[in-house]
Design brief:
By secondary structure, the chain is an alpha+beta fold. The protein has 5 helices and 6 strands; from the N terminus they run E-E-E-E-H-H-H-E-E-H-H.
Amino acid sequence: MNNTYSIDEDINLSTDISIVQCTEFGLNLEVIKHADSIWMTKRQIAELYDRHITTIEEHIKNIFKDGKLDENLTTGDFPIVAVEGGVQVKRNIKHYNIDVILEIGLRVTSDKGKKLQEFAKTLTKQIMKNVVNDTNQLSNEILELKKISFKIRICY
């Protein structure tokens, strides 16, 4: 089953294209928001991480080769309008979703890639801390419920 996105009829270019300001990275990028994700071209990803497009292509190739992500689920062809020789030309250009964008960020060795890695580690630690706190709270509530249940059994 091939789930590759062909977006031409589903995407509304006037509402599904957003300018994302990445103040951390000092960038303003035009990205496509579609199907609960954001989508970028190789060129945009290269700009995001301050790497040459061939480096990004190599990372993408390895991500799919290693089976880290499913290419059919994480890539899509989106219509892009460009002016060539004074004529507007619409072409479907391959885009990569947020899963690919983040996976590349974990692989690049640029300062921007390192910032993403640090952010991901901090976020993971915070999530784990919240899970531990929630688990402890839940354990305390279960213990309290057992005490109440025991008291109710004694009363009856």
